[in-house]
Amino acid sequence: MDLTHLIELDRIAKENGHMYPHQRKLFEELVQNTGKHFLGIIGPRGVGKTILLKQLANYYPNSFYISMDTFEGNLFDTVKHLHDVMQVKNFFLDEVHTYKDFNKEIKKIYDVFENKQLRIVLTSSTALGMERSKFDLSRRLLLKKLYPFSFSEYLYFKHGIRAELLSWKDLLTQPLSAHQMRYSEYFYSYLKGGLMPFSLQEQEILPLLKNILETIIYKDIPGIETLTTEELKIIEQLVKFIALSSVDGINYSTLSNNLKITKYKAEQYLSLLERAFVVQRVFPKGSNVMREPKVLLALPYRLLYRAFEESIGALREEFFVFSCTLEGLPVHYLKSTRGTKTADYVVSDEESAVFEIGGKGKGRSQFKGLTVEKKIILADSIETNQADKKPLFSLGLLKTEKLY
Q1: How far is Cα 123 from Cα 103, in angstroms, rounded to an integer?
Q2: Which residues pair with 355 in a beta bridge?
Q3: pTM (whole model) above 0.85
Q4: Domains of the chain as residue ranges with CATH
Q5: What is the DSSP string of 257-323?
Q6: For 80-122, how does the pLDDT look when each residue is reduced to its tens digit (9 = 90+)?
Q7: CA distances from 39 to 33, 120, 130, 171, 264 (A)
């Protein structure tokens, strides 16, 4: 078996990996994961999965990197030859969704090499297909998600700042330090697209983001779900409708009414978009309310359709939900009764708290009647720094025991 071409590509990939000396949080988590299962990395397009995989290939001895979108041949035979002849123990397979029947090949490799300490880490830009693979491969594959930068990661990767982080208790009870308040000057740049890792090399990210969204809708989604061309156009319209609307009141019913589709179709399309990291659904707190979610866009897709100044209210809430998701914090929206106002969100952890998200003048009227002890205003203002009212960006400085 002549693998000269693959060996050369492996060498080039590892050289490229050395160009990125700083690692994401997930890097250490993957290194520490020593189970017998293989590992899969899913996440939005452009989030840095390929770079992470090349860094891992450099970290492990006896490793081999293969980009499956350029691979020709039989995967099992290639892995077996590299293992038996070259003693390769660690395989890093990029863009596996481009290889036909990769589920079957990965399953065969696992079953044959189960007791030979073979390690495989694979990635896919088609997160939708990888979610399905998790079930097809059962115990053989453990999926990990790679998200865009948290605000603290952005400070480090873009500006070289090792942020002074907060515990959950600190967030609920303490104002920020004077040093932490200095981070405010970077927050709008983060919201405008700095959270996307490819922004480190690209100044104009919105054209690239537009291409990513079109690829997701017209290539990734039909790759795992049989939909008509007309349905794909409706999905594109659905994203635009969410982006141009206020965050309040966007749910299955409003999407159904405005796009002239059934609520079942609205739920189906949103599920696909959520699994592709384009939308975020937040369900209400409690069991005696309708289970329709509040629908947000993932940052910063809204900026494809509206200027930053027109989008800031929605971007604040999308940042809040995204930051909670990164930290594994369960977040729900609070459903108000007709004619009344209530706070935006409740986060249920060891110590629950209710949050109101807004601008400089945001007050406490929405907390009236709520019995939760911790009621926090996160206001988009550097003039706000109290124990119960502090800058919104502070949520992006969290360190939880789930990650650290």
Answers
A1: 13
A2: 345, 376
A3: yes
A4: 4-145 (3.40.50.300), 152-397 (no CATH)
A5: HHHT--HHHHHHHHHHHHHTTSEEEEPBSSSSS--PPEEEEPTTGGGGTS-HHHHHHHHHHHHHHHH
A6: 999 999 999 999 999 887 787 788 888 899 889 887 889 999 9
A7: 9, 6, 11, 33, 33
